[in-house]
Amino acid sequence: MNSMITMGDVPGGGPAQMDLGELLATRLLVQGNSGSGKSHLLRRLLEQSARMVQQAIIDPEGDFVSLAEKFGHLVIEAADHSEMALHAAGERMRVHRASVVLNLEGLDADQQMRWAAAFMGGMFEVPRQHWYPVLVVVDEAQLFAPAAAGEVSDEARRQSLGAMTNLMCRGRKRGLAGIIATQRLAKLAKNVAAEASNFLMGRTFLDIDMARAADLLGMERRQAESFRDLERGTFVALGPALCRRPSVVRIGVVETDSRSAGPVLAPFAPPEAPVHDLILAPVAAQDMPARARRPAPVPQPDLLSQLAAHGEAQMNRAEPEDELETPTSQAEREAGMAAILRDMLGDEEAAFRPAPVLYQDFLVRCRIAGLGRNALDMRRFGRLLATARSGVSRDLSESSDWQQAESLAAGLPEDLQGVFLFLARAAIEQQPCPADADIARVYGTASNGRARRLLGWLEDRNLIVLRSDGVGRRVLSVIGAGWETLPGVADA
């Protein structure tokens, strides 16, 4: 299959061709000021490749919906769908190999970023058997991968920037070829722009953008001013899919029209009727928009008074759930809570979740199990969590040795109690000394260096002693208790 498409012509040098197969592997960056012909270039590229490869177009202004009439693209009006629905649409368009135009027109900037991120996330997360090649064209890419924070929320910017980074950095292996167009390189996140290997640089006037464009094309700084002299629809091209040396390319004609083409100069005809009557005619009462009147603010008591009243109400109010609870013995309650906590810690991600988050999850599970709304306070939960993370068995937890270990752990910071009990259990049961990775997981980190620093801290506090046997394996002893582990490999 011939993968060459014609983008236009090189003035005085014949047709300008692009290797579509190479483009899928190396991505493309288009830059030019407003009116330089970026959208015309993207339309030419899309039209020439429409029948050769699947396409997905992130369209913030509705410029490319006209492709549907000639080439059969599915136009998705993002304003009519939820974020979740667009994530599913991103997956399904790859499964069914349909070319799609995601029209984000009518949404505010925050929604555009969220909805585009959801759609690109769906394309990115599709199963491996559907990793067919797709050209992903993002017009006005500086809106979705801004170099600096703007007026949008941090969450929307994080989602959108993450989706754009995945597209440009990790999309190649999944068949996604990113083609991004921006008005200004200075406004585009550098980690997104840096992943492109093909460039089409159009007319630009700001010094910072000209200098950056010259750097990307390998041109000398004194040649940067040539970007000011480029005509509309003319670009300087470079890249493995285009040409090996910077070359001027004039983009060819297109078959479809933009729905939002720029203004066209036409003869100006003044209105025939008096302008005063046209502009300042009285508006009928029924045509005036209704304005909701804001009610007068009701004076509120000060914050301390509100907190005091709320506290009294909470103390006087009986919890209906507590009244419906079936009476259970303290031993049964503790066994139920221990079982819930063990089930929570069975999840691999639980080791890296902070204690307050685990506490909220624990309370919800206790309510589901009928153990009450406030089964444990945070302090008691911390002790129970430390015991559970140590991996102690039920029989050992009832022994005098374990009671002594808990007494020693009580004097430590809460985040270190679980680590000490984990080491004490290994010593009591005479198991091999735990590896650094196991100690780090109990502490809630993936850093083996942090685990070694924790061991050093405990040794400085005269709680443990570390030594090596004859072959360099680590042995841990608990000072005062006489417990000692078997030799173990630290970096196992």
TrEMBL record:
Residues 310-332 are annotated as: Disordered. InterPro entries: AAA+_ATPase (IPR003593), ATPase_Atu1862_pred (IPR014588), HerA-like (IPR008571), HerA_central (IPR002789), P-loop_NTPase (IPR027417). GO terms for molecular function: ATP binding. Residues 24-214 form the AAA+ ATPase domain. Gene3D superfamilies: P-loop containing nucleotide triphosphate hydrolases (3.40.50.300). Keywords: ATP-binding, Nucleotide-binding. It holds the Pfam family DUF87. This is ATP-binding protein.
